[in-house]
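Q: what sequence does this backbone want?
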């Protein structure tokens, strides 16, 4: 039985709502993403009216955009009229401080925000702004699973069990992703490890032995090769679950540091979409970190092969656009950005009039 927000329970029109309307949303964890800047996103478990559950991944700035759009539409100040309602308050932007601590401190505030948002009258719940925010997009569905903190089983004393000697008939699983266990009770897995299964802890966690160490680990990180006897029924589910997972979307950026003594070439990985257009400031701080040089200039090569200095976001736009025209001629790895950055020392102007 779903505990529906009080305000909705009394409304007869709640029953008329479609089953995929979200009724509760709770943050299950936060995760760090290394884009052109490090940011955090909230892993949110959404339950829909029809009892389905799914995870969505949202950044604070997506909450902020949603809230601004709702205020324009429904707040009495923005437009006095029939369709206005009292919107919950969203925690404000924070400009200084440790990003992880800021994200952590926002969890209770955002949980409260979502709870109050989903208690609004039904005509607001049906608004596309809210539906799209809580909708599981394709990229939400393709995320690599995580051992969500809120869903971890309570830890307990672990007794060491030696697996049976007949290894081939022992229930076992192969790790598909790396997993770093926290604390003594969780196993750390490397992709490819074979774990001997001892028992199922709950719907999401298993207990097993790996290299004489016994501990628990999340099932979503492994592929079951031979299931535990009592879990025959969910063997098919497990197989399909791990079959269609896409890897996290990493993109590769090739960058060069041009110096009199030679060229230092680096490939850096960022968790951003290939279509992204990063800001000039983000690129600048990223390149300073990569090459450990403070006083640098960013450049790219135009279609004629000349070095063009980048000074602001508009130049970045130009670089991205030009790379689309020239990009087709150059064979690049699938996940590599079509543009490349050439970093020079800020005072070195000789690079602009020499062949290289």
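A:
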């Amino acid at each position: 039985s779903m505990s529906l927000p009080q305000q909705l329970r009394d409304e007869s029109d709640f029953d008329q709502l479609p089953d995929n309307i979200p009724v509760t949303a709770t943050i299950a964890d936060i995760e760090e993403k290394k884009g052109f800047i490090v940011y955090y996103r909230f892993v949110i478990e959404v339950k829909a009216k029809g009892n389905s559950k799914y995870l969505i991944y949202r950044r604070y700035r997506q909450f902020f955009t949603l809230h601004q759009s709702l205020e324009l539409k429904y707040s009495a100040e923005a437009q006095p009229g029939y369709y206005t309602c009292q919107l919950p308050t969203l925690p404000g932007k924070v400009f200084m401080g440790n990003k992880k601590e800021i994200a952590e401190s926002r969890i209770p505030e955002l949980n409260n925000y979502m709870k109050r948002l989903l208690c609004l009258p039904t005509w607001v719940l049906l608004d596309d702004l809210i539906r799209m925010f809580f909708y599981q997009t394709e990229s939400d569905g393709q995320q690599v699973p995580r051992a969500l903190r809120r869903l971890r089983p309570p830890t307990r004393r672990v007794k060491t069990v030696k697996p049976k000697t007949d290894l081939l008939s022992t229930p076992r699983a192969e790790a598909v992703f790396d997993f770093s266990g926290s604390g003594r009770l969780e196993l750390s897995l490397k992709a490819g490890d074979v774990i001997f299964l001892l028992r199922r802890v709950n719907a999401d966690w298993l207990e097993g032995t790996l290299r004489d160490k016994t501990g628990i680990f999340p099932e979503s990180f492994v592929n079951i090769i031979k299931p535990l006897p009592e879990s025959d029924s969910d063997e098919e589910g497990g197989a399909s679950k791990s079959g269609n997972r896409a890897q996290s979307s990493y993109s590769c950026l090739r960058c060069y540091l041009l110096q009199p003594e030679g060229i230092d070439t680096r490939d850096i990985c960022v968790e951003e979409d290939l279509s992204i257009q990063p800001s000039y400031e983000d690129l600048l701080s990223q390149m300073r970190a990569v090459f450990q040089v403070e006083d640098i200039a960013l450049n790219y090569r135009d279609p004629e092969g000349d070095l063009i200095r980048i000074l602001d976001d508009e130049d970045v736009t130009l670089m991205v656009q030009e790379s689309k025209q020239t990009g087709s001629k150059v064979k690049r790895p699938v996940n590599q950005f079509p543009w490349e950055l050439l970093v020079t020392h800020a005072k070195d102007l000789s690079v602009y009039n020499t062949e290289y």
